[in-house]
Amino acid sequence: MGNFPEYQDITTVACIGAGTIGGGWAAYFLSRGLSVRVWDPSPDAGQKLRRLIDAAWPALTELGLSDGASPDDFTVHTDLAEALRGAGFIQESAPEVLELKQDLLARLAGATGPDVVIGSSTSGYAMSDMATTAVDASRLVVGHPFNPPYLIPLVEVVGGEATEPDATAWAAGWYEYIGKSVISMDREIPGFIANRLQEALWREALHMVDNGEATVEQIDLAITEGPGLRWPVQGPMLTFHLAGGEGGMAHMLDHFGPSLKSPWTRLTAPELTPELRQRVIDGCDDEADGRLFSELIAERDAGIIAIRRALAPSMSPVAVPGT
Amino acid sequence: MGNFPEYQDITTVACIGAGTIGGGWAAYFLSRGLSVRVWDPSPDAGQKLRRLIDAAWPALTELGLSDGASPDDFTVHTDLAEALRGAGFIQESAPEVLELKQDLLARLAGATGPDVVIGSSTSGYAMSDMATTAVDASRLVVGHPFNPPYLIPLVEVVGGEATEPDATAWAAGWYEYIGKSVISMDREIPGFIANRLQEALWREALHMVDNGEATVEQIDLAITEGPGLRWPVQGPMLTFHLAGGEGGMAHMLDHFGPSLKSPWTRLTAPELTPELRQRVIDGCDDEADGRLFSELIAERDAGIIAIRRALAPSMSPVAVPGT
């Protein structure tokens, strides 16, 4: 693809920034048997990274290491050029400050050859806004992970206006190659997809805390004991598809459509036009991909049970006297 | 507590409405060894309920049945008085239409003795708005479950203006007694807590579909492979507490606070005042309840791994060649 390397030829990657996200990336790359070169200007970066990798390694081992993976196969540098030496891919995870990202990405693009793709962990900036000062922005791609990057598979991939489509496609393939779940977006939107969803929930939570409507603990319990148990199994759309009963999403929208006008959140809903209604219904059908309604329910139930059992292996029947 | 029965003395409950939610409640009550009397006016209610219970029973068996629990210990009635006979508790799960709920709750209150508490499965109406026509609204309480009610533990409990506090407390205790996770709310807010959070996410998803920014499938994948994997383990607040690194929620708010102004969702955030900032930080501390940061991370990681393993038991290392 273009002039970019074959994935299997990459043995060394560079992690720029070794905070929670950058360090998590480093741990993940190590678990894939890659050598990792880390750049971080702070004097205690090496120590913090050591602790982070040590804490993550049991989890990574549990999930399965690649051949030759070692928790020690990393070096930490304060000199950028040194950190980039021999790296076949670069993951930038600097603090979320636009000017800082712009400057750093420009330096990274300038310091690497035309075959090195640079992925940014930004949680919300569009690459078009971050790549403004780079002389060559063609290899700059957003590769947005979730915390902790060594356990959550999702990476959202999207290029900026100046990004070469081949570089974006290469990055998506690369993340998939190392075992990530990739969403390739056609369009830059602030916060991408998952953070927009998460941020809507978070803002509503902040409003509730602000108004004294719920405590922090109640908000967390409402998710962990409620809809949160469904979400690793089926996303919000398929969840509502099943909530509609045998009528599916169509019934759901017709029955609960009016509640989009209710003040159930501070977020105003879009108008539920016939077009939007149909697009959501069709989307659920596409996603169900021929699975019967009863099959989707069985999958959901099996998933929730597996999760509840996994999180509470000793879960036992409640002692309600029988009739 | 007041004049209400001891929980262990209740052997029979009534389910009003046998749709997805009402039928799910019936299945759950049966699994707890209770006799269930179902009222539903539709002619095929009995058949649909039979199918729903049969589909749910393997899951309920897997989670553990109470002594004497039988999937056949139910009767279906079209006569309301008959359905209520001998019921020590009533769960109302009629369609989400205000006038219908008002009418039905008034009839239920009128047809039962002063010792019978009536829980409503409403997904968003305040009891104060639903109880307007009831002669005796003192025993009418919201007991809001999540779909499927036989697998998701959460029940949100809140009374209306005319509800006797003892009845609300009794209902909360009852749901806990039968094995549910209860959030008791002091205050009525539309959509309660979990649905407000879920609805914010859902509306943002609808906006994205409406604008062609994401497909239904991408939205679901963004959750199931992303933040959704964290939410059964730690809710949104504790998640962000850990995302802040060792600085916790305080660092998170100071670092990402400015992004509350970003257009990452259509939901406008509250002003991050010093008071709100402190309330969120204190809430996280309360919830952490003395657990060290490293312990919280270890719990999160163990939970996510358990979930990933539970959902993909055959998950194996990705074949990345070692160095």
Automatic annotation (TrEMBL), chains A, B:
Protein name: Carnitine 3-dehydrogenase
Organism: Paeniglutamicibacter cryotolerans
3-hydroxyacyl-CoA dehydrogenase C-terminal domain: residues covered: 191-259
Gene3D superfamilies linked: N-(1-d-carboxylethyl)-l-norvaline Dehydrogenase, domain 2, NAD(P)-binding Rossmann-like Domain
Pathway the protein contributes to: Lipid metabolism; butanoate metabolism
Alphabetic keyword roster: Oxidoreductase
SUPFAM superfamilies assigned to the protein according to its UniProt record, in alphabetical order: 6-phosphogluconate dehydrogenase C-terminal domain-like (SSF48179), NAD(P)-binding Rossmann-fold domains (SSF51735)
Enzyme Commission number(s): 1.1.1.108
Family membership: Belongs to the 3-hydroxyacyl-CoA dehydrogenase family.
Biological processes per GO annotation: fatty acid metabolic process
A molecular-function term among this protein's GO annotations: NAD+ binding
Residues annotated as domain 3-hydroxyacyl-CoA dehydrogenase NAD binding: 12-187
Keyword Amino-acid biosynthesis set for record: no
Top-level class of the enzyme under EC nomenclature: oxidoreductase
InterPro entries the UniProt entry points to: 3-OHacyl-CoA_DH_NAD-bd (IPR006176), 3HC_DH_C (IPR006108), 6-PGluconate_DH-like_C_sf (IPR008927), 6PGD_dom2 (IPR013328), NAD(P)-bd_dom_sf (IPR036291)
